[in-house]
Design goal:
- The chain is of the alpha+beta class.
- The chain is 62% helix and 7% strand.
- The chain has 14 helices and 4 strands.
- The chain has helices spanning 2-38, 43-65, 69-72, 78-106, 113-131, 148-168, 185-189, 196-208, 210-219, 228-238, 252-260, 265-271, 288-299, 326-338, and strands at 242-247, 275-280, 306-310, 316-321.
- The protein has a 4-stranded mixed beta sheet with strand order 2-1-3-4, sandwiched between helices.
- Strand 3 and strand 4 form a beta hairpin.
- Helix 4 packs antiparallel against helix 5 (113-131) and helix 8 (196-208) crosses helix 9.
- The longest helix has 37 residues, at 2-38.
- The termini are far apart.
Length: 341
């Protein structure tokens, strides 16, 4: 009886461990479904969660129906321990992404892009050396010769190492950049926090010093402000429209737009012809809570990113969300230049 009880406890603990370790890979999908459900949508969240549960349960269900299949599965051995070690390294790399998210939301400032990439490079290098048998752990079987499969896998991880190394020295990493800490890490992590005093000073200069007003108004076209009221005042002074970027510290789609869309010359030129305001909404403190409330109440959405072009009077000209369509986004920006002030 006691052995039966311990067996059940072991199974439960194994299931708990499996759920925790797999959650780091599935949380983006599950999180998106839950967010959609919280906004009142029900069909796609139900389909998504049904598919998620079926995929997880299918192997156990099929093996319980056809236990003879267990005999046909590969026998455990040194190869299985090798896979577990490699997966362990990868799990550390994935976990680092969630530590990075916490760092950005809490504003700790401990994991900028260069340190993040350096850790990933170290992990990829260790995997390469481990696969080649340069070092091994206690449970590993001795490697008499390096097989073709090992060499192939080692080449893959070595290529990943050199690819990430290029990013460490400033080379764009394309799609991967959206999942890394932003290039403008220190500016973004302090956005809306340490610049409040500067904004008050700039507002004072706007009211009392015409020369300072001109200089600040000109510089506002090449930077992103983090205070909407300041942006409205500048828009009135410059007779320009305002582009509001509702964004998030952990928003991968936002980072993709910033790295792959905003930096295109034509897009940059159009952006610089409007007053730009970037409002973060995913910290649980002010002014971020007010930014989220503004987005939800005035524009009826909490989707990130949300781009809004409006007149200094508050009249909305156009809105746009995440898009990979370059022409669509350019046409959206042109609305802010063609609309009468």
């Amino acid at each position: 009886k006691s052995s039966s009880s311990s067996g059940i406890i072991s199974i439960l603990l194994m299931g708990l461990t499996f759920s925790l370790t797999s959650f780091t890979c599935t949380v983006p999908f599950v999180g998106s479904a839950l967010i959609a459900a919280s906004t009142g949508e029900w069909f796609y969240p139900i389909i998504g969660m049904l598919g998620f549960s079926v995929v997880f349960a299918a192997p156990f269900f099929l093996l319980s129906l056809f236990p003879s299949f267990l005999k046909k599965m590969p026998k455990s051995g040194g190869w299985m321990n090798n896979i577990k070690v490699v997966m362990g390294f990868l799990e550390i790399a994935f976990a680092l992404k969630f530590i990075s998210n916490a760092d950005l939301v809490w504003g700790l400032g401990i994991l900028p892009k260069d340190i993040f990439l350096a850790i990933w490079i170290g992990i990829a290098l260790l995997i390469t050396l481990y696969i080649l048998g340069i070092f091994r752990f206690e449970m590993d079987s001795p490697i008499d010769k390096v097989s073709t499969l090992r060499v192939t896998n080692a080449i893959i991880f070595a290529a990943i190492t050199f690819y990430l190394l290029g990013g460490l020295f400033g080379k764009p990493l394309g799609e991967l950049d959206a999942f890394l800490p932003p290039q403008e890490y220190h500016e973004i992590i302090n956005s809306g926090r340490n610049q409040q005093q500067n904004i008050s000073t700039n507002n004072l200069n706007l009211n009392t010093n015409p020369t300072a007003n001109t200089k600040f108004a000109e510089s506002a076209n090449s930077v992103w402000l983090d205070n909407l009221q300041t942006g409205i005042e500048l828009a009135k002074t410059n007779n320009q429209n305002i582009l509001i970027d509702f964004t998030g510290f952990t928003c991968t789609n936002c980072r993709w737009m910033e790295q792959n869309m905003f930096k295109k010359p034509d897009v940059q030129n159009l952006l610089d012809r409007m007053i730009k305001v970037k409002l973060f909404t995913d910290r649980y403190e002010e002014p971020y809570l007010s930014n989220k409330k503004l987005q939800q109440e005035k524009f009826g959405s909490i989707e990130l990113p949300l781009y809004v072009i409006m007149k200094p009077t508050g009249e909305v000209i156009a809105t746009e969300t995440f898009t990979r369509d370059y022409a669509e986004f350019v046409n959206f920006l042109k609305m802010g230049l063609s609309a009468n002030l």
